[in-house]
């Protein structure tokens, strides 16, 4: 029974980097079969860095330590490259090993040679970094967003590729909604993922930045920041209750609880209002076309 190319592609989803690097013959541009299994010693001068590399910063001290280890132990795990032309290759994964090998003064490096197009290159680089490198939370968030937008993956497929559930993926993607100053704080490791997640729950940007500056200067713990955000939220709710004294407290509690569930499900702040006649509205804000598509996908409308 024949299997379509589309079905073959779908079948590979959820298998992570291994599905993209499977050791099976592929056809080159001329149509002939090229085996892509095997490890070769390739001169470092023939290898180009990966233009799709998602990591923007490599720790110099860590590279020096890796270079010392390579000098003593050699390369334990080969890098992965694709062949561009005769004696010309491009990195798919393993740039830290590649850079450290140059620092160690090596002339050649062991490498798997693969066939891959540009989209596969991007996918492999992103997934390899997410799974193996010590990326900061913002780099992971950007990598997830690029997999969604540039590799045309849906959130369920993305979760399968990186081995994370939808909630975890959403938590990282929500970091991209924070103001630039706070995103820079995550990037520079001034605040943790836990700090950032607490700030996301504040709607007012000025208040977000105010608490952000305070957590930096006072070196506040995640629990302390969560308490500040909670106090801020409860203060707002008390004002709303005071202005609507006729609101049934039981109904208010049920609405707030349902609102929290909706916010958790959609990975964004959700507004739920209901009057005494049980009429009301639900508002789900979005901040970009990609964010709208994410919400529509959760609603199973696309």
From TrEMBL:
<comment type="similarity">
    <text>Belongs to the ParB family.</text>
</comment>
<dbReference type="InterPro" id="IPR050336">
    <property type="entry name" value="Chromosome_partition/occlusion"/>
</dbReference>
<dbReference type="InterPro" id="IPR041468">
    <property type="entry name" value="HTH_ParB/Spo0J"/>
</dbReference>
<dbReference type="InterPro" id="IPR057240">
    <property type="entry name" value="ParB_dimer_C"/>
</dbReference>
<feature type="region of interest" description="Disordered">
    <location>
        <begin position="14"/>
        <end position="34"/>
    </location>
</feature>
<feature type="domain" description="ParB-like N-terminal">
    <location>
        <begin position="40"/>
        <end position="130"/>
    </location>
</feature>
<keyword id="KW-0238">DNA-binding</keyword>
<dbReference type="InterPro" id="IPR004437">
    <property type="entry name" value="ParB/RepB/Spo0J"/>
</dbReference>
<protein>
    <submittedName>
        <fullName>ParB/RepB/Spo0J family partition protein</fullName>
    </submittedName>
</protein>
<dbReference type="Pfam" id="PF17762">
    <property type="entry name" value="HTH_ParB"/>
</dbReference>
<dbReference type="Pfam" id="PF23552">
    <property type="entry name" value="ParB_C"/>
</dbReference>
<dbReference type="Pfam" id="PF02195">
    <property type="entry name" value="ParB_N"/>
</dbReference>
<keyword id="KW-0159">Chromosome partition</keyword>
<dbReference type="InterPro" id="IPR003115">
    <property type="entry name" value="ParB_N"/>
</dbReference>
<dbReference type="InterPro" id="IPR036086">
    <property type="entry name" value="ParB/Sulfiredoxin_sf"/>
</dbReference>
